Amino acid sequence: MASLANLLVSLLLIATFSFSFAPIRCYVNRADVRVQHGANNKSAHHTYIVLVKPPPSPSPSNVDEDTYQNWYESFLPKSRGGDSGKSRIVHSYTEVFSGFAASLTDRELNALAKSPGFVRAFRDQTRHLMTTYTPKFLGLRNGTELWSNTGYGKGVIIGLLDSGIYAEHPSFDGENIAPPPARWKGSCKATRCNNKLIGAQSFIEDDDDPSDQQGHGTHTSSTAAGNFVVDASYHGMGAGTASGVAPGAHIAMYKVCADGDCDDSAIVAGIDAAIKDGVDVLSLSLGHIGSLRFDEDPVAISTFRAISKGIVVVCTGGNEGPDSHSVSNDAPWLLTVGASSVDRSFDIDVSLSNGKSIHGEGLSQVAKPRSKMHPLLYSQERGKCDYMGNHVVSEKIVVCESDTTHENIDDIMSAGAAGVVLLNYESYGYTIALEEYNSSVAQVSANDGAVLRAYATSRSSPTGAIFSYHNTSLGVHPAPVVASFSSRGPSIAIPGVLKPDILAPGLNILAAWPPETDSIPGPFNIMSGTSMAAPHVSGVAALIKSLHPGWSPAAIKSAILTTADAVNSTGGSILDEDHKKADAYAKGAGHVNPARAADPGLVYDLGVVDYAGYICWLHGDQGLATVVHDSRLSCAKLPKVADVQLNYPTITVPLKPTTFAVNRTVTNVGPPASTYTVKLDVPKSLNVHVTPNKLVFSKAGEKRTFTVSVSGRGVVHGQGHVEGSLSWVSAKHVVRSPIVAVPNLPESPPPLEKKGLGLGVNV
């Protein structure tokens, strides 16, 4: 398999490896399941996640693990081939739902589907894995109010579903970390466990070792909650004191990924264990491409159970940008994170003999830069620089396309090249996702690359160029900028809710790394992806949870969204990869601001019943039974809640000439006596009225409901939607919600295609 480093150049997916795969298929409990003609080998075994009703018991709340296991075994054949007496069950689930994962043939699954107590089954599918400076960039410094008030996240447990963890890394040192809270029930099977790393388990079949052979889980864990490490750097670059966003929080690693692949059955088992163990925040830096029906997605179903238990679930938005409709992990109960840059770069200037200078970046920087100009070599026919030992490259700086292989670059340098310049593709814009090379390589943006390409082809023998190395530069503007690879909305499954929710640092993030993993010596590595962005927000959620332990997951999400930065470090609009104004489907509510999120003033709250009403609107009773899995609730007794009417902290509405109204309810979590006045920032093409336009609170916890009425004449300048914002402003707080008005937004559930009901069968 290609290394992580190679995958970055070819896919810009350093962290959240998102490959295309077949959508999840599922069964429904129908008596007329039949074998499809022409199906594939019906005797082959596949892993299925099987949902069943809870075991019969006079007191379901007192059912023990053995009762569940015996109940699950009753659905299965007793043996498989020569494995007489061996359980067919791969994983058992009791918290996310009643069910199990087992290896079954299609014929066995057909028979099982007719058993009393069977609910549904999903074919196991594979998902993929999608600092010293970023806490400072987010306004977190030693002694600052938020870190001090929260004890740096003291008492909060962050669970990560990832590739494991390198426990011996100094980021996971337990010094000055308080013991875990009494509610913690998990176990730690790592080589070193302490008050920082309190949990480590593997859910990979035939692998009980939670250590990290890939590096991804170590990197994300230290980003979320790594302890302070002095003198951290990557080959001297990005030097400083490293820490996670919540350095006082505890870490629990649930290893569910191996070689970049994360099977749904293992992910669900990890979530199931995390709920039992007592985590407060779950961080998932993994995902699939695009939207799945929520009632056909076992991970969405499992995370719903987690939030119903009060656990904040933070997920990557995906690395399929800048294409629209590419956002994943888009269920409304998830906090979906996009990736942005920070104001730091690792500069290598490419100075041309005509006096111009091209800005580049690189991780391979030499202490004593060369002073000699070298001829540039660029060939459109050999854009990927496949010179195969050709010494025409000797003493030249060779210009290549960004997906040139490491092997080709090594070959060029072995043939005597003075250096390599990699040109980003046009779709990458100004985003430079850095990769480690063993020689002098400068990566340049698509825009600067176009200038360099024109220079290199303007004469038969360009005079030349020279590299100037500047190591680490801070205060780079503009920042933050949406990374090109960060997936964009609108969501296909839920167009009436803005996704991704928020931006966080995800470009060229320095964090912990196991020694000699993926040819990187460690102990730190620089990676890019929404996988790096999500744990930043997980850390912020942990800080808020420490300060406000009674807040619901939706309240914590609301606090993060309504206090997000809507502008960059220069006071201008947040930009996209082309340095154009980023739209809401790229940036969500804006860029996370931890200090403001800890004191939002008002929150938009949501609970299980609210989400249940939404599931009834979207998928009906069958979806309610599958996703919410609560026999006390039925669609007949619940109001059906459209996506646009969810009490979400962002507002998405249809754009049409007649007025469309949505209701929202806010809860006062600020000063008891508070008055908020509405402030609207909308273009002239949009008519927005808010009733009432003033909210008066007399006590904490008090709720107020308001109505937002929107109409408009349509989009302009080729845009697909119109944007504005609504803010509730008091003497101390600004509570901001983006407004997105979309022509032809469905007012009924989107007609997502329902997939087949299992390999080789249909109904």
UniProtKB/TrEMBL annotation:
Identify the residues that the record assigns to the Subtilisin-like protease fibronectin type-III domain, covering every copy. Answer: 645-740
The UniProt entry, under Pfam families, shows: fn3_6, Inhibitor_I9, Peptidase_S8
Q: Which residues form the signal peptide?
A: 1-26
The entry's active site is 162, 216, 531
Q: What GO biological process terms are annotated to this protein in UniProt?
A: proteolysis
Inhibitor I9 domain location, by residue?
47-130
As for subcellular location, the record says:
Secreted
Signal listed as a keyword: yes
Whether Signal counts among this entry's keywords is: yes
Q: Which GO terms describe its cellular component?
A: extracellular region
Q: Name one GO molecular function term.
A: serine-type endopeptidase activity
Q: Where is this region: Disordered?
A: 203-223
Q: Which UniProt keywords apply?
A: Glycoprotein, Hydrolase, Protease, Serine protease, Signal
Composition bias, Polar residues: 212-223
- InterPro entries assigned: Peptidase_S8/S53_dom (IPR000209), Peptidase_S8/S53_dom_sf (IPR036852), Peptidase_S8_Asp-AS (IPR023827), Peptidase_S8_Ser-AS (IPR023828), Peptidase_S8_subtilisin-rel (IPR015500), Peptidases_S8_3 (IPR034197), S8pro/Inhibitor_I9 (IPR010259), S8pro/Inhibitor_I9_sf (IPR037045)
**Peptidase S8/S53 domain location:** 153-567
Query: Record's family?
Result: Belongs to the peptidase S8 family.
Name recorded for this polypeptide: Subtilisin-like protease
- Give the organism the record lists: Hordeum vulgare subsp. vulgare (Domesticated barley)
Which gene codes for it?
A: LOC123406358
